[in-house]
What we know:
By secondary structure, the protein is α/β, with parallel strands linked by helices. The protein has six helices and seven strands, in the order E-H-E-H-E-H-E-H-E-H-E-H-E.
Amino acid sequence: MAGLQVCSVLVTGANRGIGLGLVRHFLEMLNPPGWVFAACRDPKGQRAQELQNLASKHPNLFIIPLEVSNPSSIKAAAARVGEHLGSSGLNLLINNAGIVKLNSLDNETLEDMTQVYTTNTVGPLLLGQAFLPLLKKAAQGSQGSVLSCSKAAIINMSSHGGSIASSFGWDQLQVISYRCSKAALNMLTKCQSLGYRQHGVLCVALHPGWVQTDMGASAGHTPPVTVDASVGGMLKVLSSLSEKDTGTFLDWEGKVVPW
């Protein structure tokens, strides 16, 4: 991970699972970021206790209140992060927050489709818009013109389940709204890569694997990948991303996932 030199990173959905794992790994780097922003819905709640414990030990960790389905909350979070960074920009935005509803094709509902799409797809869109000024500032402050996560990047946490070309996991879990939201997130990533390239911002969709989290195990199956293995693999992938990777869909081992 020597190639990943990040001064600042923001992780959404950071109070548990993959988000918390990402925060831990960033803090444990030999040269950790000067600012690690961990965003979650209820920073003072019981579900954020581990995050609070980490913040008490790491002065470079800042917990940010954020509801990714609420535009006002997103704008407030961007303003707060901007206050912390001052004249510096944000190098890395990791849109990790997401939800799943265990619905089949026969019992999917308008309400659940709307809620899941709003959180998993619209949230990352609005976050990209709100944090673009800080990402642009980071890109402008970096040497060279080559895109990288050390310069400025948006990483959207997608899923193999959103691959239209693959029926991965269909027999275990249909989760229609989740699959559709992640397929849409992949298109959003492609659009962001096209629109933000001129600003020096790299954009990639990343599949973390089927990970041992509350969400991953929600259907009663034990996922094969641990949080540490997934996060360690993803950070290695982030350290290797360059110009050629913007707008692509990769997994936690760096393999291309079919759209």
